[in-house]
């Protein structure tokens, strides 16, 4: 049949063991773009054959895959991305953190994408990048990057679409406090215009002798950034003056972004501890309003309620 993009679906198999190729049980809602990219590393052998021909033999050295997804943030479905980024929490309300010594089992996915008769899957999908963007007017959006074991021909399961609630910019509250904490104490009400949170972790696929595809993965350091766009108010000027006055170490802050739906039954929280390494951009403009742009780099907070650089929480009905 002719490939018709409007018939595409994205489904997730929730793997209990990495790369076990679990059958899809979740049909994602709100995904606006999906791309699975097979990766193949091959090489020609330029042996000496007494000829001018470029090559006669070649080898396949390793096989893996990558995937990129983006879409709008739906409270209930976003749990899958948090389980994949930070590790599975099976008990509500769900709590997540960037662990100093990774011990919690990550959620890996069998990502299935396509339309009837033309479908491919990527098993062993692990997350190494997750971005959340909060616009002034509209739904929160996300983008995710995954590494996987490989790509295979597959079929879509017959699944129904879940009823979802969108996380909106109008649902959000922003808090800024000293990194010493406690986080979430000082709301900057009617001040923030938008945010862009980029959470990264240096996870890598691993090969051993006897493996053409990766047979495991390893953890690495956490990283990323948090960008805030805020109105230049007297309260924000106090924060900026304190940050600009630093002469030994840069300003360090704990930022909380909290989205609560209209019924107050779904709550998504993102906490970030970070250094303000670069001087803020002063007196930028957003529709005639003077703004300040601030970029934070993740740092460890020794606040007993934090003890990491990234945290998240999710309350669902």
Features:
single chain; 317 residues; mainly beta; 2 helices
Indicate the percent of residues in helices. under 10%
**Whole-number count of domains:** 1
The major sheet is characterized as: 17 strands, antiparallel
Judging from the principal axes of the Cα atoms, what is the shape?
A: globular
The proportion of strand residues reads over 45%
Overall pLDDT: 95
- Number of helical segments with 4 or more residues: 2
Structural class: mainly beta
- How far the N terminus sits from the C terminus, by CA atoms, comes to 41 Å
Report the strand count.
19
User: What's the alpha carbon Rg, rounded to whole Å?
Assistant: 23 Å
Name the helix and strand elements from N-terminus to C-terminus, one letter apiece.
EEEEHEEEEEEEEEEHEEEEE
Summarize the structure.
With 317 residues, the chain is mainly beta. The chain has 2 helices and 19 strands. Helices cover 6% and strands 49% of the residues.
Structure report:
6% of the residues lie in helices and 49% in strands. By secondary structure, it is mainly β. The protein has a 17-stranded antiparallel β-sheet that branches. Strands 12-13 form a two-stranded antiparallel ribbon. The radius of gyration is 23 Å and the shape is globular.
